Every structure is written in C-alpha cells, then in structure tokens.
C-alpha cells in the first residue's frame, strides 16, 4: 500500500496489469497450432526474459501521456467528483486497450505467425478495408463483451480495494511531481537510443524471436523503420564491385550492354532469327496462391482445393521451382512489373518518386499495346492506382465498375468472377479497336474473410477459411478461361498465372523457404507444348520471360532474366521480408539482416530445415550485389524509364 500513496501509485497497478496481459498473450501465442517451438528450458528462459525486457520498454513508452498529465495537474483536480469519475473512465479505457491488444495480437499471429510488424502499420493506414475485414471475419460483439467484462472486473477490484482512491486523493508537491515524473520519463528516452528489435534475435527459430518481442514496441519500430537505408543497416561492398558482379550475372548470350559505364546495367536484349510475336498477354496474379495448395506439390492443407489448376498443369508450361520475392501483394506486383529485387522497408509501389520507373508497362506501351491493371478492390489501397497509372497502365478498379457488374463483394473487393467478367469486357474493347492487350489482373477472393458467392463450390463461404478461398478462386479461373475460349482473341492470347505471394509467411526459420514457393503457369494449347521447367527462379524473372516468349528486341534495366535462357550456374531466387533479404541458390540460402548481419544456410526441402553452414564469400558478394545495387539505383533514380 505504501507504494500507492503518491500520485504515481496507479502506474504501478497499470504496469502489473500490462505485464500480466503480455505474459498471458505470450503463452497463448506459444501454444497456438501454427507455432513451432523448441521446448528447451534455456530457450523458454530466453523468450520470457527478453520478452519481459521489451514489455518494460513498451510500457515506458505507453505511459508517457499519463506521466505528463500527472505532473501538470494540480492537486485540487481530484477533489471534484466529476473529475474523479472522469479519471476512472480514462483508466477503464486504458485497461480495455491493454486487453484489446492481447486479442488483436492473437488474431494477427493466427494469420501471419508474427507479432505486430510492417503489415500492421499498413493496416492502420487503410482503416476502411481493415475494419470491414475484421467485422466480416471475427465475432466482434462477443470479443467486445469479453473485453468490457474483463475491464469492469479489474476496475471493480481496484475501486473496491480503494487502490485508485488512495492514489488519486494523495497530494504531492510540484517539486515531487516534476522530479518523479521526469525520472520515469527518462526511461523511454534511454530506451529509444539504446534498444532496437535486433535484441530479440535470440534464436535460429523465428517463432522464438517473435515471441520475445512486444507487439506494441514492434509496431512503433515498424513506423520508425518503414524505409531502411541499405548502406546504414546492411552488409555492403564497394558499389562499383557490386555493379561489376551484377553486370556479369545479368549478361546473357542474346544481350549486350549499351555502355561501358560500370554503374549502368542497361542492355539490349536481342530477339532470335524468327519474327517478333504480337500475342495478347493475360497476367493473372492470384492472391495468396501457395504452391502447397496444389496436388502437384503434395497438397499439405489436406483436401483438394485447386482441381482446375492441377488439371491445367498437364496442358501448360509449368515452372515448379519458382518463388515469390516477398510476402505482401505490393511486393509481388513490384517484382512482376519492375523486375527488381525487394529493397528493405516498404515496397517501391508505396514509396515516393516511383513514377516513370523502368517497367514492363512502358515496354508494352511502346509496342502499341493496351495495358490495363484490373483489380477487384479499390486501387488507392497500397498506392496501387498511383503507381500503375504512372508506370504505363490504365487502372480498372472496383470504383470503375458499372451498375450490375458487382454481384458479390467483401471488405477487399468484388468476387473473382465479377473481376474476370470485367476483364473480358476490357479484352473485347481492345480487340475491337484492333490493339493487342496486356492485362495484369489482381484477384482478391482468396483473402480473409474468405467470403464468396454461395453455390459455386462445395465449401460454404466464410466458414471454410483459406480452403474455401483457394477453391473458389480456382473455380473462377476455370470459368474465366472457359469464357475466353469462346472469344476470337483466345488463340492469340498467352495466359500467365502466378501468385502475388504465399498464403502465409509463418515458419520457424528466418526466411521459411516453403512459404515463398509459388506456382508459375504459362498456358495456351495452340501456342505451347506442355512441359515442366525445373529452373530455380523468382518473380523478378517473369517480365523477361514474357518478353522472351514474344521474341522482342528491347532495352532492359531489369534485374531478372528470361527463365528459358538461364544457364544452370546462374539459377537463383530472391526472397525477402521487409528486413531479411534472401538469396536462394540451389539448396543454399544467404540472408542479409540489419546490423550488417550475414547468415548462410543449407536448405533441406523435405524437412524444411535450415542448417547454418560456413559462409561462401562468392555467394555473399552476389547477394550483396543484387540488393545493394537495387537500393542504390532507386535512391539515385537510375531505374527510371
């Protein structure tokens, strides 16, 4: 009771509740089905010790407004009954926020397998979609009821025991308030300068590292680090050395550099002796289509959900060793259109100065194509409208759908059938105007809350989760291609089906390789013989591969290469999240991390294990070359059109 007999006494109670909620949250996350733990005593001690440290750091920041108010408010403020109950209300709201945070972390972990991070920052920006998604996905009335009841019980206990009253009625001198308050405020200042998220890197198990974090601290850290300067945080080498290595990597037998300038990767890619093709291109980017959902890859989710796409493989060119560059939609779209590695922090699509980039859109536009980005949601989300409008595409999004075109929708957009029906109209328009078309279509149905029109598939909407979302998208693609086959432009159209990223990014490793494995399918039975390509590649290689199919001569600043022309020794895949930058080369994985950390692993595909091995200086240099040059070119505007 003695500690409560001053104005700051309730901070102690607030601290106890905060720590208790964080402790319980950490245990619950640890026991969730998607968490893979190493249950050793030492690992648990590290998780809870480092976790407690981050909880203290977070709390010191959380209470800054409280401390400032407690310093400046005069003692007589608490003599008013109204002010006293107003203060009770503030504490009620604060405790409710703390408990709400625990629930929010649970659902975020369930979907992404991590504490709050860069994704949650994006979610705070696009509140309409996120709030609608939450209300459509979770039992909000029940959750609110639980939070209110829990908070009420805490307040009842504190008021009944007079803990709040003792603290609120105690009078303290201004000198005491200033000295005590500033002493407490000194903590977050110190923590700001000496603490960063690298303190949570306690294990090779990514889940252990995530559990040792605090969600509140992580989200504010993401705010601070939404753009990570490569030179400040990552391993580097002489920039000219990086350019030299990269120029050697990018050169192919059918290309030549336009300049001897070491910092210029511009090259002319030459067609072969046959004529250029004028095929239409239908690039279908499927939301969250992990390779593991398909029967060809083992269908680890338990039930068949891609019957059409699995059947399509027998009639297509299928790339079965293909990877997403990131774990967000904008990362996939960035790689597919700009053919550049993911730079640390946020995607180029969401950054300033992303106009007139060297994009596949401008190459097609210069060839006289109709280019359209067709999206089922509202394109202002993630800055997609601005990016595509300023990089060679016309945007068709949900806001441009005409009356009657939207038959079903949810928080993220119209159902995939509605999207594809509008895409058909756009194809017909281009064909009628005698122009070839390049349509980049981005689906949305395979996204939480996984709702779609009833009666289309044998899984009920909403209640079937990801399985239902995947299967409905598979159904919609089937219906779309059936309709395309009735069109006069079908025989001259190349269908390229690829995922934007996997259905999850959770895994025990720093970069869980399996969670980046996606299918790439190229289809037109009149144009291509079916075959399987085992070449290791990633999304940055799609644009050059499409241009190779068209047999065009074009100028390139792409970091990717035509997969068909890749030499066995130059196979690689670039995979990353917003901090970890990976270079997958065969069964070896190099990872660059902040604080210039470099780790090298051998990847065992059957077990998904990453075994740390001795660094390969050659692969270190290659990895640094790709990412350092990508960051350098963006910063210095060298990848403009």
Features:
2 domains; alpha/beta; single chain; eight-stranded mixed sheet; 44% helix; 641 residues; Alkaline Phosphatase, subunit A; 21 helices
How would you sum up this structure in a few lines?
With 641 residues, the chain is an alpha/beta fold. It is built from 21 helices and 20 strands.
CATH architecture of the largest domain: 3-Layer(aba) Sandwich
Largest sheet: 8 strands, mixed
- Find the count of extended strands (DSSP E, 2+ residues): 20
Q: Which strand-content bin applies to the residues?
A: 5-15%
Assign an overall shape: globular
CATH class of the largest domain: Alpha Beta
Q: What oligomeric assembly is this protein in?
A: single chain
Question: How much helicity do the residues have?
Answer: 40-55%
Structure overview:
With 641 residues, the chain is an alpha/beta fold. It folds into 2 domains: 2-224, no CATH class; 233-293 and 306-342 and 370-398 and 420-635, Alkaline Phosphatase, subunit A (3-Layer(aba) Sandwich). 44% of the residues lie in helices and 13% in strands. A hairpin with a 3-residue loop joins β18 and β19 (597-604). α4 packs across α7, α13 (239-250) packs across α21 and α18 (416-432) runs parallel beside α19. The protein is globular. The model has no long low-confidence stretch (mean pLDDT 89).
């Amino acid at each position: 009771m003695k500690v409560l007999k001053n104005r700051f006494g309730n901070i102690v109670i607030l601290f106890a509740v905060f720590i208790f909620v964080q402790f319980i949250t950490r245990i619950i996350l640890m026991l969730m089905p998607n968490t893979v733990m190493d249950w050793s005593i030492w690992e648990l001690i590290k998780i809870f010790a480092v976790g407690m440290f981050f909880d203290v750091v977070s709390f010191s920041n959380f209470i800054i407004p409280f401390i400032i108010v407690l310093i400046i408010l005069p003692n007589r403020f608490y003599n008013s009954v109204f002010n006293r109950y107003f203060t009770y209300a503030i504490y009620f709201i604060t405790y409710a926020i703390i408990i709400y945070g625990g629930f929010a972390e649970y659902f975020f972990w369930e979907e992404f397998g991590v504490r709050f991070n860069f994704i949650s920052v994006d979610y705070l920006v696009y509140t309409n979609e996120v709030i609608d998604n939450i209300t459509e996905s979770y039992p909000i009335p029940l959750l609110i009821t639980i939070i209110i009841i829990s908070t009420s019980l805490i307040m009842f206990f504190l008021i009944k025991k007079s803990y709040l009253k003792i603290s609120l009625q105690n009078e303290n001198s201004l000198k005491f308030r200033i000295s005590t308050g500033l002493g407490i405020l000194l903590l977050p200042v110190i923590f700001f300068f000496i603490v960063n998220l690298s303190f949570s890197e306690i294990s090779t198990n990514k889940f252990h590292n995530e559990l040792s974090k605090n969600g509140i601290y992580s989200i504010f850290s993401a705010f601070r680090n939404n753009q990570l300067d490569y030179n400040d945080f990552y391993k580097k080498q002489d920039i000219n050395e990086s350019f030299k290595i990269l120029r050697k990597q990018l050169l192919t037998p059918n290309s030549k550099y336009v300049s001897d300038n070491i910092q210029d990767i511009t090259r002319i890619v030459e067609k072969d002796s046959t004529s250029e093709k004028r095929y239409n291109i239908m690039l279908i980017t499927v939301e969250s289509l992990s390779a593991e959902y398909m029967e060809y890859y083992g269908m680890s989710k338990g039930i068949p959900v891609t019957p059409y796409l699995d059947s399509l493989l027998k009639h297509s060119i299928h790339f079965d060793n293909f990877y997403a560059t990131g774990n967000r939609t904008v990362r996939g779209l960035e790689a597919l259109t700009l053919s550049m590695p993911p730079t640390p922090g946020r995607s180029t699509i969401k950054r300033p100065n992303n106009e007139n980039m060297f994009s596949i859109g401008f190459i097609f536009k210069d060839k006289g194509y109709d280019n359209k980005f067709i999206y089922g949601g509202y394109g202002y989300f993630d800055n997609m409208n601005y990016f595509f409008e300023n990089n060679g595409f016309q945007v068709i999004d949900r806001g441009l759908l005409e009356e009657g075109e939207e038959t079903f929708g949810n928080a993220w957009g119209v159902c995939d059938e509605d999207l594809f029906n509008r895409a058909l109209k756009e194809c017909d328009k281009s064909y009628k105007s005698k122009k070839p078309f390049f349509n980049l279509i981005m689906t949305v149905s395979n996204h939480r809350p996984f709702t779609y029109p009833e009666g289309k598939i044998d899984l009920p909407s909403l209640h079937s989760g990801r399985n239902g979302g995947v299967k409905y998208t598979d159904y919609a693609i089937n219906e779309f291609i059936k309709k395309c086959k009735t069109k006069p432009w079908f025989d001259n159209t190349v269908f390229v089906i690829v995922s934007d990223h996997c259905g999850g990014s959770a895994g025990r490793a720093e970069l869980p390789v399996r969670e980046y494995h996606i299918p790439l399918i190229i289809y037109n039975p009149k144009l291509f013989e079916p075959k399987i390509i085992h070449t290791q590649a990633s999304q940055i290689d799609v644009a050059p591969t499409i241009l190779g199919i068209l047999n065009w001569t074009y100028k390139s600043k792409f970091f990717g290469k035509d997969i068909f022309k890749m030499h066995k020794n130059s196979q690689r895949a670039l995979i990353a999240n917003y901090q970890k930058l990976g270079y997958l080369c065969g069964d070896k994985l190099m990872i660059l991390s902040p604080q210039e950390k470099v780790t090298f692993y051998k990847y065992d595909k059957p077990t998904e294990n990453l075994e740390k091995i001795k660094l390969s200086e050659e692969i270190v240099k290659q990895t640094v070359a790709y990412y350092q040059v990508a960051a350098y070119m963006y910063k210095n505007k060298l990848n403009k059109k």
